[in-house]
């Protein structure tokens, strides 16, 4: 008897091989398959973990970033002793600890139009575990060009979504569903909105499951958008999506033949580069005050200062400056005049110094010749860096 798997592999994968429709041939298909995961973060880590455990033969990992302490809440392959290590190296180490039979290809670089096709072309299935629109369009276009299925996941706050693109002859691409990129201001990251780690675990595991179904032939070929809400009584909702659009500029009739991934400016298509919230909070103007100047003002006691913190009540409850009051931005902007009290200086603070600028504009528009109104330049992050290094950083 010629064994297609080692004796150890028969024992290791036996629980899934006995499943109806899976069998020995399903396991062999996994062993001979290759999956590339773009993004070794909150979605990529659980996806990689279960793909490795299931016995996928080759795993590619693409990520340019390094492990930070703020990652550990959800990026489960990374550990405290690998802080500062590249995410691909950290994930590769974890994968080898899970399953030494898996071959790991590590790409410590940012996926881009110039390298996407070269990296992705040797893999059977592509997983999009990234968090920005430009990369989603890039990976979708590359998948169409290479004729590969793309398993795309997303997660923010308590919610997530999942969809498989370019699956089979009629499977739509990302542009079929979203021909126009979202407005730049509508696209946000986990750093800005927050994320419950277990939500990325749910979506990342589902991405691994979709890849396994595709490889083993268990997938029924139907394309649907799966929506997940952790706080809903019925957390899963599936929306049937339309087939490939004939007039799609990428996968439609004649589309992929004219597709030029390398020379497409995906960042421009999505409205320009992602805003650097720290840098935009550092712009100097006469409506702003530095953290060190605010500290001196508070220490000298020459002025009574009205400190208005425009973060959400949840963030205010995590940490805040002494004597500050919490007025969420939406509340303040709805009726700015009611928050102008007396003639003492009004100083507005937020996390990074961006929402506070909006609040200052609203307060000034409601004030004729009232108090001096400024905001803390760089927000509480600047306060921590320049004044009090013991101030809690949760961002």
Automatic annotation (TrEMBL):
Entry-linked Gene3D superfamilies: NAD(P)-binding Rossmann-like Domain, Rhodanese-like domain
UniProt cross-references to InterPro entries, sorted A to Z: MOCS3/Uba4 (IPR028885), Rhodanese-like_dom (IPR001763), Rhodanese-like_dom_sf (IPR036873), ThiF/MoeB/HesA (IPR045886), ThiF_NAD_FAD-bd (IPR000594), Ubiquitin-activating_enz (IPR035985)
Cofactor(s) the record lists: Zn(2+)
Residues annotated as domain Rhodanese: 301-392
A single GO molecular function term of this UniProt record: ATP binding
GO CC terms, sorted: cytosol
Organism: Thelephora terrestris
UniProt remark on cofactor binding: Binds 1 zinc ion per subunit.
UniProtKB keywords: ATP-binding, Cytoplasm, Metal-binding, Multifunctional enzyme, Nucleotide-binding, Nucleotidyltransferase, Transferase, tRNA processing, Ubl conjugation pathway, Zinc
Protein name: Molybdenum cofactor synthesis 3
